[in-house]
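2024-03-11 09:14:02 DEBUG pipeline.ingest accepted 1 chain
2024-03-11 09:14:02 DEBUG pipeline.ingest length=141
2024-03-11 09:14:03 DEBUG pipeline.predict start
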Amino acid sequence: MDLKNEFNKSYDTGSKLIGYITALLFLVVLSGAALNSGCSGKRDSALSLVEEPVLISGPATNFRYNSSAIPTMNLKPLFDESCVRCHNAEITPKVPLTNYLEIYTRGVLVKRAVQPGGRMQQYAPFDFEMIMHWYDAGMPE
């Protein structure tokens, strides 16, 4: 048995283990420092996997996508009637507007398309004021 080779094998294994432990401790300390320096803890509720209430920063409105107690204030029937026949997953271009999340994430595009002079006005007349009021209020669900 070669004592020198056995010593080198155990030394290499031990130094690798120490290196891994040092790197792990460095990452833990670094991530802890990042969390404590500058992170406000606020998350965008549209991107979060955790259910959070949506904070409405605009004017108050009774318009909702589908949860208003007043049925005429729900915009889902308008989107279903005017948008979904062309904006669904089966038709190209792929800009589906079949549910609240798809509409919410494309809010600016929807706003531009339905305003007077917008490209969707040629296909179906929209109640621009109703949609803009809803958009300005933060597009509540």
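2024-03-11 09:14:41 DEBUG pipeline.report The chain has a mean pLDDT of 74.
2024-03-11 09:14:41 DEBUG pipeline.predict end
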